[in-house]
Amino acid sequence: MAYELYYWPTIQGRGEFVRLALEEAGARYVDVARGSKKEGGGMPAMFALLDGTKVDRAPFAPPFLKSGRLLIGQTANILMFLGARHQLTPAGDAGRLWTNQLQLTIADFVDEIHDTHHPVGASLYYEEQKEEASQRAAEFRAQRVPKFLRYFETVLSRNGSGKHLVGGSLSYADLSLFQVVAGLRYAFPRMMKRLERKLPRVVALHDRVAARPRIAAYLSSDRRLPFNEDGIFRRYLELDD
Amino acid sequence: MAYELYYWPTIQGRGEFVRLALEEAGARYVDVARGSKKEGGGMPAMFALLDGTKVDRAPFAPPFLKSGRLLIGQTANILMFLGARHQLTPAGDAGRLWTNQLQLTIADFVDEIHDTHHPVGASLYYEEQKEEASQRAAEFRAQRVPKFLRYFETVLSRNGSGKHLVGGSLSYADLSLFQVVAGLRYAFPRMMKRLERKLPRVVALHDRVAARPRIAAYLSSDRRLPFNEDGIFRRYLELDD
Q1: Residue A230 within a domain
Q2: Is A158 in Cβ contact with B56 (below 8 Å)?
Q3: Chain B residues with a Cβ under 8 Å from any Cβ in chain A
Q4: Domain for residue A147, yes or no?
Q5: Nearest chain B Cα to A119, which residue?
């Protein structure tokens, strides 16, 4: 039976981390909210599970994944589930905890990336908080991005061949770090050009993931939505340096 | 062997969610950074693991937990580990995923609580961003707090007796929800007074957790740090309604 992924239909957002894992696994899945209402898809199908009064374990927000009778929310939680099923995480408990820890650190980073354009609140438009966004983005570029990316560079350098974040094979944390690098390149091209020289392992990981056959096929398909200014990674050049 | 917890020594912060689980489990643990430098504790012991060049799987930030040779970071990840070891989570995979999902939703809520007093950036003092904090807190009180707390009220109401978030017994998610209610009462007393009337199950859960013998003993001990204005939950009355 195919997985059902539920996420906002017009952005990569946090759902993209799940899509990348499903694509790399070669799993069958339906991106439900991108489907047609006539065939039971679209936004109504998503809101039926979010707001339905009969849903036992309703998620708080998208993305969430339906796998048979299981309904699983929270990006890192979905990835932990998929990772165990599709060999995108080590078999042992210690390796799984470490993979989850790295994914949660990436999630924290993603939250901070989002807040660069929405520091004062998600209910206001970016245009209403441009000045605060400029202040927040300056701190983000100068302190937070280097701290996070150097951390992942160090994790790679301390892990044997330096080719994966965890152990000797690909994990969903690698896929997620690829996505963060791709997103930062889109949103902060000048900053990334400056920083990448000192992040050889992070950049090489990005390139290796992008070249994996299933990921490469996905990235060139119309299943991959383009980055845009409604998502997490937004290209507002005034926030770049 | 006792667990070693590493967290900032003067605040409850995110470390408190781990402390509550350790206390409820009756586990032996050392709160390392609160110990004396002479005996190998204090902040240098914490930074040795954060910044040491020989640490294989160094965490990005506190809190982290040492259990034998395992070093585990990220609050929700630590709780998943402790939950499985100390019967603070269901035995089956589905229940564990659900508990983790709720904990990650609480973590998102905690991030938003923190950002009410630091919207523009963590490197600035609150006093330097009071105006933006006021704007962000207004949205937080009007929209985000009701949305999160009603969500947990609904989760309780859909779970059998309504006494626990997950299944028929206490989980670490219950302990964490207790902490959030306690913290919100400290930081936003007027708002909580208004909201609590419509949250009978959430309030009852808070009270039941507070009355558990080990938690009650902990809360009245000097191991429980008081809430203060360096932590996540800060009492700035101008941000309350």
Answers
A1: no
A2: yes
A3: 55-60, 70, 72-74, 76-77, 80-81, 94, 97-98, 100-101, 104-105, 108, 111, 115, 119-124, 132, 135-136, 139-140, 143, 148, 151, 154-155, 158
A4: yes
A5: B119
**Orientation angle between helical segments A15-25 and A75-85, nearest 10 degrees:** 10
Asked if residue A73 and residue A106 are part of one domain, the reply reads: no
Residue ranges with strand state E in chain B = 3-6, 29-31, 64-67, 70-73
Rounded alpha-carbon distances, angstroms, from residue A6 to A32, A33, A217: 6, 6, 22
Low-confidence stretches of chain B (pLDDT beneath 70)? none
pTM of the predicted protein model: 0.98
A63 prior amide bond cis, ω within 30: yes
Beta strand extents in A44-173 (DSSP E only):
64-67, 70-73
In whole angstroms, what is the distance from residue A113 CA to residue A126 CA?
A: 14
In a domain, A156, yes or no: yes
What lies within 8 Å, CB to CB, of A101 at 6+ separation is B57, B59, B72, B73, B74, B77
Query: Do A205 and A107 reside in the same domain of the chain?
Result: yes
- CATH value at residue B133: 1.20.1050.10
The parent domain of residue A36 ranges over: 3-85
The total of structural domains in chain B comes to 1
pLDDT in tens, B17-74: 999 999 999 999 999 999 999 999 999 999 999 999 999 999 999 999 999 999 999 9
Is B172 in contact with B88 (CB distance < 8 Å)? yes
Task: For residues A105 and A202, state if they share a domain.
Answer: yes
Residue A140 DSSP symbol: I
| Per-residue pLDDT at B121 | 86
Measure the CA–CA gap between A42 and B116, rounded to whole angstroms.
34
The pair of structure tokens assigned to B92 is 């089956």
- Which region, left, alpha or beta, applies to residue A26 given φ > 0 means left and ψ of -120 to 50 means alpha? left
- Give the contacts of B112 (CB within 8 A, at least 6 positions apart): B140, B144, B148
